[in-house]
Amino acid sequence: MFAQPGDAAGVEPDSSEGIRRMLTEIILDASTNAPRSCQRRIGPSEVGDPCPRRLAYKLLDWPTVNDGGDPWPSIVGTATHDWLANALERHNRESGQKRFLVEERVEVDDGTVSGYKLGGSCDAYDTATHTVIDHKVVGDSVMRKYKTEGVREQYRIQANLYGLGFERRGLTPQTVALAFYPRGGMLGGLWVWTDVYERQVALDALKRLGTIRDALIALDPEARPQMWEHLPATASSACRFCPWWKPGSTDLAVGCAGNLNPTQAATAA
Length: 269
Ligand code: SF4
Hints:
By secondary structure, the chain is α+β, with helices and mostly antiparallel strands. The protein has 2 domains: about 35-70 and about 210-265, no CATH class; about 70-200, Lambda Exonuclease, Chain A, CATH 3.90.320. The protein has helices at about 15-30, 35-40, 45, 50-60, 70-95, 140-150, 155-170, 200-220, 260-265, and strands at about 100-110, 115-125, 130-140, 175-180, 190-195. Strands 1-2-3-4-5 form a 5-stranded mixed β-sheet. A hairpin with an 8-residue loop joins strand 4 and strand 5. The longest helix has 24 residues, at about 70-95. About 25% of the residues are buried. Bound molecules: iron/sulfur cluster. Iron/sulfur cluster (SF4) binds near residues 54, 235 and 244. Iron/sulfur cluster binds next to helix 4.
């Protein structure tokens, strides 16, 4: 007989622990095999990553060493995105007008700026106000941080990249918006950041990606692993989410130590 999810010696499958294990295994299996987890090509959400070395690993599709830990926050985020997409589509249907372009795929670069063909699905584009809308689901402390210190530059770049993609399709984006939804709070906690769409922000990010590509070609760390150290790293608390983060690693061909030890990482925001 095949093992079933949750099966473990001494644990009754209909006990609370048996059911907990069964659900956890099924969720982890679905999460590991979700399209986003399996995405190999670089996307607009990653282009503005502050760490050139992380981008380099991504561009080379380097074997990962960090699964990112508990996937629940990202599962909640994905489920919320699906719900919001349905809500906007419903609004389109009920109003009889296709005001919102929902989860539309746009081509951000045909390869002429960064050297890579790059595209992705944008959460929403409001054709009434020509606004790119990107949904973010965040915890309390991150929400507070963005409100007081400003949003991550990586997010601003992502939104402008989508804007560029819509511009390439003949639309005229004016505004980029990041809608932050509280992961554990109420709808009243929704906070929206806006900025004027700036094509140059997107182009500069694509050019930066192109310089990393040039460095990879020149250094060729696949053939010469010792060259990894010449790809600069921008370590931060975000290292804990980096697929190539390996605390204590001294071999960049295996993983990058970042600047956090495991204890710091466990408490990083
Ligand atoms: S672990 Fe940190 S410093 Fe190293 S590649 Fe990843 S993000 Fe960059």
